[in-house]
Amino acid sequence: MGTENHPVWIVYDDLRTARLNVKYYECQLQKLQRVNTAMELCLAFTAPSSAFAGFAFWKYEIGQVVWSLLGSISAIVALCKPILALTKKIRDMESVVQGYRLLYFELKEIRSAIEQEKRFGPTLKLQLKKCSQREKELVSRNPESKPNKKLRRTCMDEVMRELPLDSFYIPPEAE
């Protein structure tokens, strides 16, 4: 059997896929968190009781125009916030990121065991099967309706640099 057909590649492919998903969903999570923070800050700054509202600048004609504009933006943000349901999306995304992190570390443990034992034995194959079940469950919880292909490609390039093909140990024979 050639090394390119060795069953151990299932572990390594899954490892790289899990790492890709960690990176990708972490980026998506950060984006959601930034948008949510910006919306929260907008609402906080434009609240009548905020220190920002007390600036003397707002008493001048230009200040009143700017304050009126900020108030309009804030009203739109306040209407959009529950519609966008960012906090729910953030919670869902955090759960998926955490799931892929766990999967990645479990697969790293299998990889390490393969390197230490110099084989891909039945115990490790059983562990891999459990990881596959976890991955199925994570895929079903995908929080996105449309993936960002450009970001996914960028993350894939990072993973390929992190985990190049020649960094994996191939046992001498399949079991």
Topology:
Blueprint: H1 8-46, H2 61-84, H3 86-117, H4 122-140, H5 149-162
Summed up, what is this model?
This protein is an all-alpha fold and 175 residues long. It is built from five helices and no strands.
- How many helices? The count is 5
Low-confidence runs (pLDDT<50, min 5 residues)?
none
Query: What value does the average pLDDT take?
Result: 90
Order of helices and strands: HHHHH
Strand content: under 5%
Rg over C-alpha atoms, rounded to the nearest angstrom: 24 Å
Strand count, sense and barrel status of the largest sheet are: none
Q: Structural class, please?
A: mainly alpha
3D structure, described in words:
With 175 residues, this protein is mostly helical. The protein has one domain. The protein has five helices and no strands.
Primary descriptors:
175 residues; mainly alpha; elongated
